[in-house]
Input
Amino acid sequence: MLVNGKSYRTVWIEDGIIKIIDQNRLPFHFETLNLPDVDTACEAIIKMHVRGAGAIGAVAGYAMALAFKKNSNKDFSDVEENKRKIEATRPTARNLFYATQKVWLAGLEGGYDHAMEVAEKLAEENIQEALAIAEYGEPLIPDGSCIMTHCNAGWLGFVDWGSALAPIYRAHRKGKQIFVYVSETRPRLQGARLTAWELMNEKIPFAIFPDSASAFLMQQKKINAIITGADRIALNGDTANKIGTLEKAILAQYFDIPFYVAAPISTLDPSCPEGTSIPIEHRSENEVNSLMGWDNQGKEISVRLTPEGTTAINPAFDVCPASLIQLFITSQGLIKPEEISKKIKNAL
Ligand code: MRU
Output
């Protein structure tokens, strides 16, 4: 993706140091962060300097490889402890666990060099999968469509290109006229801050809307299709994604609007038989009680919204039953929910 004419990935490695675009500084400040070790990488994931299933998967993979560099213990217990630390950062996105496991096995087999080689390969695969999603998904977007999306499942949520936004980017680059409705995505506003910034960079016309306006927009017949990403897909096709996705899927069925979920194969989880076994992250009350922003000097500020002492509930994801999903747009083609378990078993 181009930023001010320069091509960037969201996550990359340089001289053995993990580099990320700091997503907590966007959309007003484009800055990169260095993550030289497991601890800084874990902190970046927990505090969401890097976020999005694909992107945290890539950072987790690189961090797992770095853990082998420092290993002083022949039985790998230090590395295993670091694996646990990385896996404790955020529970829901399957891609994180997929990456740590693959890189862990590679490191046991061939040490740091092999672990890093596999981490790099996974990051590269992440880009290739996103490109395949773009290709398979683009025909679902007719010229002149208005597409609704939620949260940020674009370039910043992956190493490049994204999942839900990848078909939209491809359709637009092919010359199709598209308009994107982006829900703000309270409480962290990934839609308003990140997806808006991405679409602006790509010069795709869009509008953000309050999460609570989804039903109104669908009822007004303004939406031709909804495309979201996914954080974890169970064997039966139930899908965890950013909180608010379930509501949109239910509404889509009511208003007879196609609801598509775009995801790479690494998001499918063979160990989850159904949605109820997907772990859901609950985040701090502060994210709901306050709003984070920047002052004129670019300093981060937090504005309190609710009376002191207010209790807030902050589940970060919800689970959409497979029956509400029309099609999965995956890196291996368009898949019906009832066929997803076969695909999961074949792919992994
Ligand atoms: O909490 P986040 O921002 O890491 O949430 C993950 C997401 O970005 C979304 O749920 C997305 O739709 C799928 S992952 C690109």
In short: The chain has ten helices and 17 strands.
